[in-house]
Amino acid sequence: MTWQTFIFGRLAWSVFPQNAIAWGGALFMLLCVIAVLAIITFFGKWRWLWEEWLTSLDPKKIGVMYIVVAFTMLVRGGADALLLRTQQATSVGNSFGILSATHFQEIFSAHGSIMIFFVAMGLMFGLINLVVPLQIGSRDVAFPFLNSVSFWLFCAGAVLINCSLLLGDFSTAGWLAYPPLSELAYSPTTGVDYWIWSLQIAGLGSLFSGVNFFATIVKMRAKGMTWMRLPMFSWSVLGAMTLVIFAFPILTVTLTLLYFDRTLAMHFFTAGQGGNMMMYVNLIWAWGHPEVYILVLPAFGIYSEVVAVFSGKKLVGYVSMVWAIWAIVVLSFIVWLHHFFTMGAGADVNAFFGIMTAVIAVPTGVKIFNWLFTMYRGKIRFHTPMLWFMGFVVLFTLGGVAGVIMAEPPADYELHNSLFLVAHFHTMIVSGVLFGYFAGYTYWFPKIFGFKLDEKWGVRAFWFWFIGFILAFGPLYILGLEGATRRLDHYSASLGWQPLFAVAGVGAGLIAIGFCCQMAQLVRSFRLRHENIDTTGDPWGGRTLEWSIPSPAPSYNFAALPIVHHRDEFWERKNSGKRQEMKFENFTMPKNSASGIIIAAFAFLLGFGAIWHLWWLVVIGLVGVLITLIMRTFDEDTEYTVTASDIAHREAGLRYTNI
Amino acid sequence: MTRFQAFLLCAFALLLAVATTIYVQGANIAILEPAGPVALGERNIIIITFLLCAIVVVPVFVMLFAFAWRYRASNPVAHEEHHPTWDHYNWVAEIIWWVIPAIIVAILGVIAWQSSHALDPYKPLDSNVPAITVDVVALDWKWLFIYPAQGVASVNLVEFPEGTPVHFYLTADAPMNSFWIPQLAGQIMVMPGMTTQLNLMASRTGDFNGFSGNISGEGFSGMTFTARAVSDSDFSEWVSSIKASSTPLTMVSYATLAQPSEYNPIAYYAPVDDIFDADIMKYMAPGSSMDMNMNGPDSTMDEPTTSSDTMSGTSDMRM
């Protein structure tokens, strides 16, 4: 090893973007970063940002930061989607579109990885942070500092994946990077390493969050909140976090083995030398299938809350719903092989996994029936969250049919790897997951910020998303049946696919407008916040404990910890007119800590070093993480006490609920 | 939602339905227009499953819109009938919506079991006509078809007689791939160092589009091929015409062919060396020069390791 390779690793002048569109992406990202930094500096907000947000251990603030990052990454992933749609609509016959094949492949790999890991996961953990402590009547999560570490690791992963816009390339092997294509022999550049390390770092954050919220729900429920009184969103989060705890270690190990293959010339998954690529495919889906349910279960929980509240009725079939969640949790671990029925496993194996996959439709179907009968004899107010729910039922049911069809192995032989499959999983993830999180975002927004989101722009956003979605993915179902495979950067004109790809492109454009409506909604709501102010703490007629406290929720959540007697505790309190007696006591809250952000910064250096083979940087990153952790463990001064008189004084100045 | 908006939505749905119907009438929906027994069986499974699902989906849609309309807060009826604590007062309702989907899924399970066995891609087709064997090698980025019995090979075109079962043995000398002729049979994965199998038959003559289903690198989109079903006599003629053209496929010319290339034209070879078995052995032999990790794909054929005497001792890979 020469001293140059020791210092610079794989870095060279050629790592900068090679064409105009790639430069455009890189420069746009840089400009955005510079603009944000300049605005913060101009308004002199650095200290405020650092003290109030970046070092905060308040799960509500961490939740807001998760959602901000997720929306930012949605812009990146969405821009990727528009490029993909443009390419596929134009690259036909003699025209080769706007992107080179390699660039196209980088973009779809980035699109998938970003949308799952940094948009869906970010929105999910954001909402969980915002709501779960409030809903279970707790002042905090079980491990507040670990929560900060989780968020900042998620952020480090997000920054790392975007570094590939400017330095080096990104993986061309798809969002799950099947070997041997993702092995060094076929992907010799840094692309797959970017993929590995951004997912690895963010994935560790997810694992820590999983442990944290599992412990929070099990150990920190309010007095009297027995299991059968736990709100449905918290139930579904408990299910999802159980899946995180079991599934994410598989991802961590799989990514590590792939990195060993690529860096240490090992042969876990290589072609030849005893490597087995199908081992990788099994492992990645043993994580990947539960991951789908990790994302969708909390969204189901949100729908359960939204339907009950906006129908003005208790949730029908609560016990049934709980069993359905746990049936899904268990079943989601025994269906992974349906992602590769075409591997050539025997008929017995395929039939087993096909049957299991169909079985998982039963608890999911039961949940839909329970929601529908919650609407029955209700008094339904169609606020935006309810619209997202309606859109969800329509699309998710149809997407579910596509899923059940593909659960039959012989049907899957035809539909696997086709655009039919692509349309199916986008239907599940967009309508099932994203619509749910949008509903939750609108629903809980006033609890965090003290004012409601603008209804008019929310409705517009919904219709653009909903109709845009139908136009973007309806054609993909048909294209799949016509034999169009996924990930094509070019196709023959004689196939006659171009009109449908053009319609899909229009649909993607409508979705982009829908997203712009959401941003407009945010701006308008902030400007008109005094008109939409939530003076009661209970703007929707809520049923669960988070609505029993003022909006915005104070940093300590509950001045006096609630005592729960009913399933819909707050609803029952409103009906009976009995308010809990406020007896203030001293309690402790965690102090802010910079250790989380410092650990993540070192983890970022570790990842960056591992990607570019800057081994000295890897050592710095690793030692930095360990030393920061050790220093934190010796920090005894991590909490402060809030006294009863202090609380009484602060509560006197807050708005109260109208019960 | 006002009545006008509801009307707009209905109009949009109707327009969508009409446009889709018109499009589908005119388009060539490959999977729904099978040209052989395997693809036909698979299409039937798709349709049966779809119809069974409709038993649940139709009530869901009806209830969703009926409840949403009837119980909207602006409707006086909703106020009269509002029942905030309504849960199913008996277990009948609950049982119905656990049991009906469960029954449908049980039926689907039986179909899954039977069809997985009946349409097992490895299972030779029942026919009075003896099957012909075609070895398939996925390369960067083209398909090589070898006819061991006929001693010919072709690139990006696979021809076979109609009404004759075709037994494919597939491997890759490139990243993982997936072999797909939508109108004849579903996909099977194609992997280096491993053999997979696919049986199919064309029940009529014609050209059918073939695709590569799994991303395999830069030239993947151009990795299409034609599957051509012809009469028996045309097939024999085709084979002899290839034999007459004297481009042999030796280990040396194969090494050139295996180099990455995009949008390859159709090509023919005869006679053909034992490429297929050599390809599989290449990834199975330990410590050979085929250390993919260190040398990169371009160097995989640097040395003629697959000389005839190393291969003679190995058994036939087509098992």
Termini gap of chain B: 65 Å
Residue ranges of chain B: pLDDT <50 for 5 or more in a row?
288-315
Rounded Rg of chain A: 25 Å
What string, H for helix and E for strand, traces the elements of chain B in order? HHHHEEEEEEEEEEHHEHHH
Q: If you consult CATH, what is the topology of the largest domain in chain A? A: Cytochrome C Oxidase, Chain A
| CATH topology-level fold name of the largest domain in chain B | Immunoglobulin-like
Strand order of the largest sheet of chain A: 1-2
* CATH homologous superfamily classification of the largest domain in chain B: Cupredoxins -  blue copper proteins
Structural class by helix and strand composition of chain B: alpha+beta
Kindly estimate the percentage of residues of chain B that lie in beta strands according to DSSP.
15-25%
Average pLDDT score of chain A: 94
CATH level-4 homologous superfamily of the largest domain in chain A: Cytochrome c oxidase-like, subunit I domain
CATH class of the largest domain in chain B: Mainly Beta
Strand order of the largest sheet of chain B: 8-5-1-2-3-11
Assign an overall shape of chain B.
elongated
Beta strands of chain B, count: 11
Domain unit count of chain A: 2
Give me the Rg of chain B, rounded. Answer: 27 Å
- Count of helical segments of chain A? 21
